Amino acid sequence: xxxxxxxxxxxxxxxxxxxxxxxxxxxxxxxxxxxxxxxxxxxxxxxxxxxxxxxxxxxxxxxxxxxxxxxxxxxxxxxxxxxxxxxxxxxxxxxxxxxxxxxxxxxxxxxxxxxxxxxxxxxxxxxxxxxxxxxxxxxxxxxxxxxxxxxxxxxxxxxxxxxxxxxxxxxxxxxxxxxxxxxxxxxxxxxxxxxxxxxxxxxxxxxxxxxxxxxxxxxxxxxxxxxxxxxxxxxxxxxxxxxxxxxxxxxxxxxxxxxx
Length: 260
Hints:
It is built from eight helices and ten strands.
């Protein structure tokens, strides 16, 4: 009854079914555990019918007995198995199991904070960073968003910084990056831009790509995260909430963030 009444309300308030599922699992797991005891549970109150599982008494849990110890052990194992779900979410795990395609290239231009052009395999691809939304700066039909120029300037400074050798000679005009393109979902947005995570070249020589630029924008308060499912959604939400709590970037500079 609580799930039926409270669940849809939570779904409506937050725009996502996860809280409703949490309520269902929270209440449902307790009721299921009660059904496994010898006394069962009066599940269909006010009816006096007792719900039990399984049907035979010798298979149900007895307080203080070995069956209770086995039940607790199984519950702990399940909790450990579900720990990755609590960190990445079901959608994040599905995306990670499906894998992604990698494309290596060099940033040749920056459109705004969350859109860049990358030259890879002798082709120039317009890339939209997955999971982040920086304030608008190039929309011909709208105003420049609050903190948009700062976000765009940061992306230009980081991704268009020339790579030099020990003598200071320019090796390449833009940053080397690895584009991670998920295999689940659309690979392009409505404007034909490739959707990707942008991993930065750590040593400047194309050897290591371990720094996720998308997440940088959120940690610095230069962007909000999007609501659709993707691999790093939980991580991005945590990064945004931390930046929001600290008043970083647009969270401290923009009076009405929703309208940036």
